[in-house]
Fold this sequence. Notes:
The protein has a domain at 1-45: Rubrerythrin, domain 2 (Single Sheet). 8% of the residues lie in helices and 18% in strands. The chain has one helix at residues 66-73, and strands at 2-8, 14-18, 37-39, 45-46. The radius of gyration is 34 Å and the shape is rod-shaped.
Amino acid sequence: MPIYEYECDHCGDRIEVLQRMGDPPKTECPRCQTRTLRKLVSAAGFRLKGTGWYETDFKTQPKKTKDSQKESQDPAPKEAPAQEPKKETKTTSPSQ
């Protein structure tokens, strides 16, 4: 729903009103109660309702930081040198 901005010609009060596009314009000023309210021409803001509109609805991965962006630009990490396999040693317990 769009958010419209109104100004009262009598008292100069400015208000923002959340209303449907098809609703008639407001005329009565809530501050001075006169019928001198007029809609201003401005960039209309709007409110998105429902799921899928909020930033948190799309967060599936942690936010990237400068450090993580550097890491993603660096070439592939070098592999660690191969280690020799450890020798298995068996211990036997003395039999009774």
